[in-house]
Amino acid sequence: MSRLEQIADLEKRFLLPTYNRYPVAFERGRGVFLYDFDGKKYLDFVAGLGVNALGHAHPRIVKAIREQAAKLVHISNLYYNEYQGRLAERLCQLSGLDRAFFSNSGTEAMEGAIKLARLAAHRAGGAAKSQPVALQGSYHGRTFGAMSLTGQEKYRKGFEPMLEEVTFVPQNDVEGLRAAVNANTCAIVLEPIFGEGGILECSEDFLRACRTLADQHQAALIFDEIQCGLGRTGKFFAFQSFGVMPDIVTIAKPIAAGVPLGAFLAKEHFASAISPGQHGTTFGGGPLACRVGLEYLAIVEDEKLLDNVIRVGGHLHQQLQELVAKYAATREVRGRGFIQGLVLDVPARPFVEQGLAAGVLFNVTQDTVLRFLPPFLLQEKHVDKGIKVLKKLLGKKRGKASRAMAEASS
Ligand SMILES: Cc1ncc(COP(=O)(O)O)c(C=O)c1O
Fold first, then answer.
1. Over the chain, what is the mean pLDDT?
2. How far apart are CA 407 and CA 93, in angstroms?
3. Ligand 1 centroid vs 71 CA: distance in angstroms?
4. Domain residue spans in the chain?
5. Cis peptide before 17, with omega less than 30 degrees from 0?
6. For labeling, which of 121, 235, 243, 312 is most exposed (least CB within 10 Å)?
7. Pairing of strands 26-30, 33-36
8. What pLDDT does 410 receive?
9. Of ligand 1's atoms, which has the minimum distance to the CA of residue 138?
10. Ligand 1: centre distance to CA 402 (Å)
């Protein structure tokens, strides 16, 4: 049995069958590359689903983990550690929000955010002010609260009833939003760019309407930036790219470079609704995760990685658009920076499998969208390598008429 077969066989016998893994096991990584147990090298456009923004084994992250692991990993939230307040301060400075709460994952950050919004809403409008408005096609996580806010049937099916009545509105439907938000709304919850939903951006008009309606009805405007935040759009926060400020923002994925950590940040008006004992976590905000979080933010700044995201993200966008102009199986390019999607007319999983064989990691969401969430270290030459492989896999080129149509619509 190969090493991969041994690993897969053991999992098959002892794990819940929740994951449909690709046939590869990785042993190590360096920068934008991963290596399997046979030493085969893979170019990584997935970054652990948006987590490894600094690639793999970044020397400063390795050093911070080593040093902190030898000093203190965990103490619980009964006591102070020297990094939690510092990371909260830095995130507040970068976001313009006032206070933070640290969790262990994105889903938990969403749970905390909605709990906080409800407390503030009850304070403002009594017990009936409890209903969230969320978007069709959204994704916010797998626990009951986050799943109840997720506007995709496939994630909720089999687990009903959901926790509460959430009203779902189509993305960018301002009229639908106006009809849905009322005095009983506690929060408007949305991802500025849908991630799992297929890399779909909210329009600035829609986000502005959300801001206005939230203000009118004293509801919290909650942005889930778990996938699109912390640099992926070329700004530290995606809302800074769209020019609309939320009341609460959730973050996770890259914040501690692979050490589990999530957070929600809130304006004082909302943060002041919570008191000691109303929310908490054993692990969240530990000294190891928070120290690595500070190092993550420092590295992004020191290495000017947001500039890189904008420059190389622009190159990626342009290269993907050229594919759309030329290849029959492609439809459109969505997103910006290092959160982009190439929409295909055919199922994308075979492309991911063939990419794997060719030594490039692609990802698929919504069956037909090839999703790119690469490390912020990615260079133009890496994009070109990925595009070269994609060209081979896409095969059939467009005829003249179809090429003109694709060019006109891009
Ligand atoms: C937008 C968004 N919200 C929430 C989550 C849930 O985060 P986690 O898987 O860390 O619990 C994800 C994860 O992909 C996400 O993309």
1. 97
2. 43
3. 30
4. 3-57+304-409, 72-302
5. no
6. 243
7. antiparallel
8. 61
9. 1
10. 37
Instruction: Give the mean pLDDT of 304-325.
Output: 98
Instruction: Name the closest-CA residue to atom 14, ligand 1.
Output: 227
State the pLDDT at residue 343: 98
Residue 322: Cβ within 10 Å count: 16
Q: Give the β-pairing of 200-201 and 193-194.
A: antiparallel
Pick from 140, 226, 251 the residue to mutate for probing ligand 1's pocket: most ligand atoms within 8 Å of its CB.
226
**207: Cβ contacts below 8 Å, ≥ 6 apart:** 192, 239, 242, 244
Task: Name the CATH topology of 3-57+304-409.
Answer: Aspartate Aminotransferase, domain 1 (3.90.1150)
Among 107, 200, 239, which is best to mutate for testing ligand 1, by the most ligand atoms less than 8 A from CB?
107
Candidates 152, 227, 239: which one to mutate for ligand 1, based on the most atoms within 8 Å of Cβ? Answer: 227
Question: What pLDDT was estimated at residue 126?
Answer: 97
pLDDT of 123: 98
CATH numeric code, 72-302: 3.40.640.10
Which residue type does 49 have?
L
* Parallel/antiparallel/unpaired status of strands 131-135 and 167-169: parallel
Q: What is the pLDDT of residues 46-90, one digit of tens each?
A: 999 999 999 999 999 999 999 999 999 999 999 999 999 999 999
Hey, is 228 helix, strand or coil?
coil
Kindly list the distances between the CA atom of residue 152 and the CA atoms of 109, 146, 198, 238, in Å, as whole numbers in the listed order: 19, 12, 12, 22
Each residue's pLDDT tens digit, 78-120 = 999 999 999 999 999 999 999 999 999 999 999 999 999 999 9
CA distance 64 to 294: 10
